[in-house]
Amino acid sequence: MAAGHLKCGHAGEDAAVLFLKELNYQILERNFRCKSGEVDVICLDGEVLVFVEVRTRAARSLSTPAQSVNQAKIAKVARAASFFLSRHDWWEKPCRFDLVAVVHNAQGLRLEHIPDAFSFPPTVGRGRNPWQPW
């Protein structure tokens, strides 16, 4: 049986995917993982490739979902996105990083979509550029 916070997180991701579909985003992949990190949802918004970070918090949480995205998390998402771009040879494709913030309260889930929430950091550890996945 999954822990309560994991159930809440999965419910948030499921709701985020439905929300993005309602916005006419084409979902390409969920929970893309590589040795460098993970991207919760990868989709297309028209011709733009979108890497989506989904953050779910309980209403009683001390921080908002958006506040929980720190530089370390951005670096991990950027490394995973770099790996995905390399795997598909899509470096010429326009892309962006979105955030779907999910708050679980007594009434259900409240979602907020933040397009272009963050960008590739200048470096992603050991001074490497994010577009160098090796």
TrEMBL record:
The record lists the organism as: Desulfonatronum thiosulfatophilum
Q: Which NCBIfam families match?
A: PRK12497.1-3, PRK12497.3-3, YraN family protein
Keyword terms of this UniProt record: Endonuclease, Hydrolase, Nuclease
Q: GO MF annotations for this entry?
A: endonuclease activity; nucleic acid binding
Q: What is this protein called?
A: UPF0102 protein SAMN05660653_00456
Q: Which InterPro entries match?
A: Restrct_endonuc-II-like (IPR011335), tRNA_endonuc-like_dom_sf (IPR011856), UPF0102_YraN-like (IPR003509)
Q: Does the keyword section mention Protein biosynthesis?
A: no
Q: Identify its protein family.
A: Belongs to the UPF0102 family.
> Where is the chain membrane-spanning?
none
The cross-references to Pfam families, in alphabetical order and at most eight, read: UPF0102 (PF02021)
